[in-house]
Specification:
- The complex is a heterodimer of chains A (about 270) and B (about 260).
- Helices cover about 75% and strands about 0% of the residues of chain A.
- Chain A is built from eleven helices and no strands.
- In chain A, helix 3 (about 75-105) runs antiparallel to helix 8.
- The longest helix of chain A has about 30 residues, at about 75-105.
- Chain B is α/β, with parallel strands linked by helices and about 260 residues long.
- Chain B has two domains: about 5-80 and about 155-255, P-loop containing nucleotide triphosphate hydrolases (Rossmann fold); about 90-150, no CATH class.
- Helix content of chain B is about 35%, strand content about 25%.
- Chain B has helices spanning about 50-55, 95-105, 110-120, 140-150, 170-180, 195-200, 230-235, 240-255, and strands at about 5-15, 20-30, 35-40, 65-70, 80, 155-160, 190-195, 205-210, 215-220.
- Chain B has a six-stranded mixed beta sheet with strand order 5-6-7-3-8-9, with helices on both faces. A three-stranded antiparallel beta sheet of chain B has the order 2-1-4.
- Classes of the chains: A mainly alpha (about 270), B alpha/beta (about 260).
- At the A-B interface, helix 7 and helix 8 of A face strand 5 and helix 2 of B.
Chain lengths: ~270, ~260
């Protein structure tokens, strides 16, 4: 069989899974080897086994400290995911709404685009202080921080998608007697859906990666709060556990959105 | 003579560019009656597409007046358009595309499923309703586009080189089907092409446009029978060959 050497073929489903599992196993093996070689003391670089022990310990509600500092890993994950969920949802609603207006009304785009880009350039920790002054230290500033972080990529993607809609479809709709509202609802929105979903995917990723920042102020009950707390007491294994949990759940959320995107727009790349 | 379907009076159109106005069309006068199948032939760049955009209401002519059933044309009112590409909405099924057109045409929700089947039957695709638009062939897609354009039962159907992208065999089959669209004598078709063969086969009347700006070089009735003759008989007849020669000569002379 002659195979093209210039074009990369995607791996088949089971093959791809096998390769990924092997890569993770190799990574853990290298990590263990580094620990065994004792380049760094265990307090700096704990091994996979210690992180695993922390996973079991922090998941155990009856270990004398209710998991970790009062709540189990799963409870913490739930608290953080809830914050990310609300923050992303508000950010997505706001972003799609403003993005649509930006894409459809050039004046609105001209006015709002610099502000959106400005927001996008700010690190979430920078505006957390302001949000805390305005909204206190309860749930609001955390959810609003994630909303502010999630909203720009959705707005930018939506605006770009709307302006990029194939004019041939718009004209075909007009030739069928559709007014502007109908063109937007039946042509512009579905035609933009794949790109908007890409923006949403990006936004949820950014919101999730900002969860540690969001939980720096009175957020000890979340997974980000656990990482910050553990850092304070030099519990390196707990810090690493937190990172692994955030990373893995982030991966799962991302592939769920990706699957949703494929299901919602199977025609992507064909139009 | 009753009310004209389309009337162009001294119509001319030019496009504004950096180098000034570039005349694309006219001035020309044309009257299309119900039941006529007018095929507009011309060399590329003769303003055929401009002509259709002006008649469909997508462009307002820089000079003169266009009347569609006595009114200024508006896209989607009394007029259906079939473009060179099918332009079906890929986020909807085949039937969904027709259903959307019916909804925009004001057909009641309860009547749409049956009308969808009827329209698809009319173009020979009765069973394809649930399919995705990209799963069917190019010829089938263009048939769906024709059914979609007919959903609002427009009095005038405009067709802009709709078969140019299809293979020869599919093209002939679609030509045979489209030829009968004016069997309904209240409907008129204006069909634009650069193919002399297509023009002679389809038309009840051929209009040859000159090179840019497009003016009418030849306006010729086609006396070929429209019913009771098979497509092969028609294409093989002496009258067909003679007309073909006459139109081809006219097109060549304006293209020079």
């Amino acid at each position: 069989m002659v195979e093209s050497r210039t074009q990369a073929r995607p791996l088949s489903g089971t093959h791809a899974v096998a390769v990924r599992v092997a890569a993770v196993a190799a990574l853990i093996a290298i990590w263990e080897l580094l620990v065994l070689a004792e380049f760094w003391p265990p307090a700096v670089l704990p091994g996979p086994a210690q992180v695993w022990d922390q996973l079991l310990a922090t998941s155990n509600a009856s270990n004398g400290q209710g998991g970790y500092a009062g709540s189990t890993l799963v409870e913490r994950l739930g608290v953080s995911l809830r914050r990310v969920g609300y923050g992303s949802a508000y950010g997505i609603l706001l972003g799609v709404g403003l993005g649509l207006l930006m894409g459809l009304v050039p004046v609105i785009r001209a006015i709002t685009e610099p502000f959106v880009t400005f927001l996008r350039a700010l690190p979430p920790l920078a505006y957390l202080s302001l949000l805390v002054i305005w909204f206190g230290i309860d749930e609001e500033p955390k959810v609003y921080l994630l909303m502010v972080a999630a909203f720009p990529p959705v707005a930018v993607a939506t605006a770009a998608a709307v302006t990029g809609v194939n004019k041939q479809y718009v004209e075909a709709a007009a030739a069928l007697g559709a007014n502007r509202a109908r063109v937007v609802a039946t042509v512009v929105l579905p035609a933009s859906a794949p790109e908007i979903l890409t923006g949403i995917r990006l936004a949820v990723g950014i919101a999730y990666s900002s969860v540690v920042a969001a939980e720096t102020v009175n957020g000890a009950d979340g997974i980000g709060g656990m990482v910050l707390n553990a850092q304070r007491y030099n519990q390196t294994a707990v810090v690493m556990l937190g990172l692994v949990v955030i990373g893995v759940t982030g991966l799962i959320i991302d592939s769920a959105i990706l699957a949703g995107q494929r299901a919602l727009s199977p025609w992507r790349g064909l139009a | 003579m009753g009310e004209a379907l389309v009337e162009l009076i001294g119509v001319e159109h030019s496009y504004r560019t950096k180098g000034g106005a570039v005349p694309a069309l006219g001035p020309l006068d044309l009257r299309v009656e119900p039941g006529e199948f007018v095929v507009v032939v011309g060399p590329s760049g003769s303003g055929k597409s401009t002509f259709l955009r002006v008649v469909s209401g997508f462009e307002h002519p820089s000079g003169g007046a266009v009347r569609l059933l006595g009114r200024t044309p508006v896209p989607g009112r009394d007029v259906g358009v079939v473009f060179q590409q099918p332009r079906l909405f890929p986020w909807q099924t085949v039937g969904g595309n027709i259903g959307t057109a019916l909804r925009w045409a004001g057909v009641a929700r309860a009547d749409r499923p049956q009308r969808t089947v009827e329209l698809l039957d009319q173009v020979g695709l009765g069973s394809l309703g649930p399919r995705r638009t990209w799963e069917i062939s190019g010829g089938q897609q263009q048939r769906v586009a024709i059914a979609r354009a007919l959903a609002a039962q427009p009095r005038l159907l405009l067709m802009d080189e709709p078969f140019a992208a299809l293979d020869a065999m599919t093209r002939e089959r679609l030509q045979e089907d489209v030829r009968s669209l004016t069997d309904d004598a209240t409907r008129g078709v204006v069909f634009v092409t650069h193919s002399v063969d297509e023009a002679v086969f389809l038309a009840s009347r051929i209009v040859v446009l000159t090179d840019r700006p497009g003016r009418i070089a030849l306006d010729l009735p086609v006396p070929l029978p429209r019913t009771g003759v098979s497509a092969d008989e028609l294409r093989g007849s002496a009258e067909y060959a003679a007309l073909r020669g006459e139109v081809a000569t006219a097109v060549r002379s304006v293209a020079a």
